Fold this protein.
Amino acid sequence: RGVQAVEKYYSTEDIAEILGFKEKRTGMVEAGKLKGKKVGGLWRVKESDLEEFINKIPAVRKNGGNTKHP
């Protein structure tokens, strides 16, 4: 039996910090632009989904969105 890796989840506040926004952005998740799910009434985004989102947006890659995870 192998050990299964646990994927990290980010809050909208974490995502705002990573992408360099001044405030949390739930609109991207609610609009389906960024995959996420509600956990206890709050949006959470898997690390792999955030990475996929970042890699699809040239402006984030070019303009140096803070892609270093906390």
